Amino acid sequence: MLEKARSLHTQMITWRRDFHMHPELGFHEERTAAKVAEILKACGCRVRSGVGKTGVVAELGEGKPIIAIRADMDALPVPEANDVPYKSLNEGLMHACGHDAHTAMLLGTAALLSKEKLPGTVRFLFQPSEEMEDEEGISGAPRMVADGAMQDVDCVIALHVYSGTETGMIELSHGNSAAGVDTFYGKVIGQGGHGSTPHKVIDPIFISGHVILALHSIVGRRLWPFDPAVISIGSIQGGHIDNVIPESVEMSGTIRYLEEDVQQQLHSEIERAFELAKTLGGDYELKIQIGYPPMKNNPKVADLIAAVVEDILGPERLQVPRPEMGAEDFGFFMQKAPGAMFYLGCRIEGDERRHHDPRFDVDEECLPVGVAVFAETVMRFLSNPQI
Q1: What is the pLDDT of residues 246-284, one digit of tens each?
Q2: Could you tell me which residues are beta bridge partners of residue 76?
Q3: How far apart are CA 93 and CA 23, in angstroms?
Q4: Residue whose C-alpha is closest to residue 274's, from 261, 288, 263
Q5: Same domain, yes or no, for 158 and 282?
Q6: Considering Cα of 343, then 349, then 351, then 353, what sign does the dihedral take?
Q7: What's this model's pTM, rounded to 2 decimal places?
Q8: Inter-residue contact 195 to 243 (CB < 8 Å)
Q9: Residue 45: other Cβ atoms inside 10 A
Q10: What would the pLDDT profile of 176-192 be if each residue is shown by its tens digit?
Q11: Are residues 95 and 143 in the same domain?
């Protein structure tokens, strides 16, 4: 499979650079989706467009079992700082997380598998909007699930390129693979007035200082030390003039966790932190928006991928990732079928281009590796679906 994937390398580079030059935000991937559908049809796939708004679903083969592979297609509102021939042509937008590479690799997998005899069905999920949510607070994965993308699927897999790891290395967990994430929006309400008479007002900035300290104390002082969690405040806004104490202060941030009981405790503790506003004479409003669920690799699916990596790349190319608290909406797919995501090293030698950075880029030598692991995993699962 690795040699077959390498024969597609030039074509995948062409696809990837084309997507990189024409980045589109979540739920606006019209050009990307149209090009994806065109290539899939040329590969002989049965194609359905408009899934989950702008997603594409395609199939090869017939009958059960069914294995699905997912790639996300959306870009980010990041202006590109790279000086490369394939630099973004859409001002202020950029593929700063590698979704262009994901899309190219899944197309390469479809092209490769179209030439194989499949003892079952492989379903390709080209997902919109992994990076952001729509006006209802829903991202691309649950939108695709609602449109039937996971119907009758027995197993689902995905990859994500990772710039922190040597090109071609595979990082794979047999359990927790990404954190769940929720967002909180809080408002501390006081009573504004002149800066010269703080005793005549209820200062929401003063109150917010206590709320912020309480929020930052939750993980270290309210949770069991062995329960991983993160609370980060990303935005604080209050006041406009130096000599006026404002009426209110607004803040927002994210909550990250691995277990549902920790999620519930975090919600309760955040509410408790904002209640300090009442203790200090003010008031508050708080909204917590549920986001992506934790992503936990199914051990049997992870075993299958690990065996594939060891056989076609060598055991030295497989490693356990260092735990981190990033989030991914692929977990919504894994709620419908056993699944796993692995991380594919794509570091540019001597220059790690961090994700979501204006200089992000990938070493395109990783592309055949991802395709080979995808294709071989599909063939082994369809031949022996013991999950």
Answers
A1: 999 999 999 999 999 999 999 999 999 999 999 999 999
A2: 94
A3: 6
A4: 288
A5: no
A6: negative
A7: 0.94
A8: yes
A9: 23
A10: 999 999 999 999 999 99
A11: yes
CATH at residue 277: 3.30.70.360
Looking at the structure, tell me whether residues 164 and 184 fall in a common domain.
Answer: no
Q: Compute φ and ψ for 218, nearest 5 degrees.
A: -60, -50
Establish whether the linkage from the previous residue to 315 is cis, with ω within 30° of 0: no
Looking at the structure, tell me whether residues 151 and 191 fall in a common domain: no
| Residue appearing with tokens 């961090």 | 354
Q: Is there a single domain that holds both residue 90 and residue 80?
A: yes
**Tokens representing residue 88 in the block:** 């973004």
- The predicted structure's pLDDT at residue 387: 79
Nearest CA to 75 among 54, 90, 55, 96? 96
Is 49 found in the same domain as 190? Answer: no
Q: Please check whether residues 8 and 109 belong to one and the same domain.
A: yes
pLDDT at 266: 98
For residues 104 and 226, what is the distance between their CA atoms, to the nearest angstrom? 39
Assess contact for 69 and 106: CB atoms under 8 A: yes
Q: For residue 357, what are the domain limits?
A: 2-178+294-383
Q: Which of 292, 354, 293, 345 has the alpha carbon at shortest distance from 316?
A: 345
The two tokens of residue 48 are 């359905």
Active site residues: 292, 364
Residue where a domain stops, chosen among 233, 260, 292: 292
- The answer to whether residues 144 and 45 belong to one domain is yes
The domain spanning residue 153 has which CATH number? 3.40.630.10
**First and final C-alpha spacing in the chain:** 22
Q: What's the half-sphere exposure (Cβ side, CA atoms, 13 Å) at 312?
A: 25
